[in-house]
Amino acid sequence: xxxxxxxxxxxxxxxxxxxxxxxxxxxxxxxxxxxxxxxxxxxxxxxxxxxxxxxxxxxxxxxxxxxxxxxxxxxxxxxxxxxxxxxxxxxxxxxxxxxxxxxxxxxxxxxxxxxxxxxxxxxxxxxxxxxxxxxxxxxxxxxxxxxxxxxxxxxxxxxxxxxxxxxxxxxxxxxxxxxxxxxxxxxxxxxxxxxxxxxxxxxxxxxxxxxxxxxxxxxxxxxxxxxxxxxxxxxxxxxxxxxxxxxxxxxxxxxxxxxxxxxxxxxxxxxxxxxxxxxxxxxxxxxxxxxxxxxxxxxxxxxxxxxxxxxxxxxxxxxxxxxxxxxxxxxxxxxxxxxxxxxxxxxxxxxxxxxxxxxxxxxxxxxxxxxxxxxxxxxxxxxxxxxxxxxxxxxxxxxxxxxxxxxxxxxxxxxxxxxxxxxxxxxxxxxxxxxxxxxxxxxxxxxxxxxxx
Length: 453
Fold this sequence. Notes:
- By secondary structure, the chain is α/β, with parallel strands linked by helices.
- It has 18 helices and 22 strands.
């Protein structure tokens, strides 16, 4: 795909979070907690579990995650105590629910000591049965993750580690406030491999201050040399209205839309040359990795954590800011740690917001998922599953795609919709055409979570 001027407005377009993560539409502020208990009581096995561990050793200026800088270790103990109350109080249909995946995210899960991680995993196994082939995935900050922690995670059954690297350049890392050593990243990957972990992932970010093309090219050289199984290439999301600490980066200068597109195209080109397969629009994997195999076989899926080989499992979220995803709706726990503590310690619901999905919501969720994962929609399959004439029901949505068709990003006929190779990296723009909430009056004037690229 070439860098062409007509693509710049599409790159610069901000998209709402529910097209970035196609399973999370607009949230409402008031949710009946009894409805969540009803969803939990009817959750289908196998399910999946996400645990949010918010603590970090330092504040990275680029970060838009829900995190808390904590120097006192007793914060971790109190948090695990509260998680224990929450987990044991879950209104599950059985005492120990079968799950296929447990993901520990953050924040920095490896802020916790090996003993604390062991306590957490033991607690989760009391209510969730991972079986012999379940996945335990853990996010890690390479600078604070010790060999002892990697060993402990392996002993606890961790199958995969994902590291947020973002950049290897000293100037970029200084600007964003992230101390880091490249040799430590390689050491963790090597140690995890010796323990038999697979699907090892590294995150890189483009569009950071000081990250000119020459710098990003060196970042790509270094990550390719480390040869992780998977890579996620994320654009820096500048959202100071949500995360005020990001304003400090404005003094270093932010990348233009043209530069962001140039960097992202460079990543696609260089990673393809290095033998990586493009997964969706922002992930890459070695051909033998199960994520790449799933993409080739058309059975890729995506949730708010990214692409996955697992089917559309219901998701139980635990901890502050965590998201639960059920067949009929979504819930998010409060992102304010002190309010979360207060609610959980009083055995009260910690839900902050959520949404019931209508029939149309579920249809559009499936359409967006199909585009984001497999880059196509088969109208015959859509008609059979949803009992509609898709070309008639989606006429207004398809009309919004005409400009993208004219640019060669998407092709539509009476059999299917296909995102072209040229349109792969802008698939979020294609998916946005089917987002009914994005096109409601007044929505365009509201804030956006991130740009298309």
